[in-house]
């Protein structure tokens, strides 16, 4: 499970701010595969994953699922619909045994009013998510599939990462980019053939980040 490089709310806060958050939370446990909230729900204002993980995905009319994001410990989810005063747009499902700190609408409103440190962190996280969403949308319009996959991998692999290894399933990458698993596997194989990436068990590795950057520049996608 990969978090697609979204900042973790708890990691951005001081110990005092984390304590204040925990004090007004309602903690609940979930078993693997349990639905935390469904599309259309209007319940909890925000959740923070304490342990385990959450997958946000949309179930289409034909029964297929399109993953929007994974939420790992320390990350928050579910607050965007609250701010927009709208219903949930995705189903949230627990990945393994999971603990979540939930916040009621009243608690969330108090947090926004009384905890500027949390507000600043949330603003930074929202900006990151919005930037990533716009990048993915623009790449979908401008670039062929193989280039889109390469750019996504470059975005996920942190700069300065020695091994360049990503704990990421090919299915996760496919759902994140709105591609079929078959198409994703085909293009990953082509990138392996070019020597740009290596694939392994539940992982993808970028052995030379600069080489991938140079290749993307050659494709006009720098």
Give me the secondary-structure topology:
Layout: H1 15-23, E1 26-30, E2 35-37, E3 46-51, E4 54-59, E5 65-71, E6 76-77, H2 79-84, E7 91-94, E8 98-103, H3 105-114, H4 116-142, H5 145-156, E9 165-166, H6 170-177, H7 181-193, E10 198-200, E11 203-205, H8 209-218
Antiparallel strand pairs: 1-8, 2-7, 3-6, 3-8, 4-5, 4-7, 9-11, 10-11
Helix pairs in contact: 5-7, 5-8, 6-7
Mean pLDDT: 86
Largest sheet: 4 strands, antiparallel
- Spatial strand sequence of the major β-sheet: 1-8-3-6
Number of helical elements: 8
**From the alpha-carbon coordinates, what is the Rg to the nearest angstrom?**
18 Å
CATH superfamily of the largest domain: Jelly Rolls
CATH-defined fold name of the largest domain:
Jelly Rolls
- In the predicted model, the low-confidence regions spanning at least 5 consecutive residues are none
Sheet/helix structural class: alpha+beta
**SS elements, strand count:** 11
